[in-house]
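Reopening this ticket.

The earlier resolution said the output was attached, but the attachment link was broken on my side. Pasting everything inline this time so it's all in one place.
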Amino acid sequence: MAKQQEAIRERVRTNLHEPRKYKVLIHNDDFTTMDFVVMILKVVFFKSDAEAESLMLAVHRSDKAVVGVYSYDVAMSKVGKATVMARQAGYPLRLTCQPG
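Inline output:
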């Protein structure tokens, strides 16, 4: 028997795109201390001291601020971690995630 060669043509995917990014917002409230917000920004979002202070003041002045832009999984993970830390400390800190 003779071997047959078949031509195999591979599909080339041309519709690849970057995953959608999501903004993580931190919201102002009257109960969460400024020091705790700075600590969350440093521990969960890896902000420097100066950057954490300026973000905390931006939240305090304008009711909310974007603390980072991440892929969906990372954004939800950071929101969840920060929310758990706030609840354990007894604060009603609210963080949200929205397409950005």
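Reporter confirms the inline version is readable. Residues 39 and 81 are 13 Å apart (CA to CA). The helical segments are 34-43, 49-62, 72-89.
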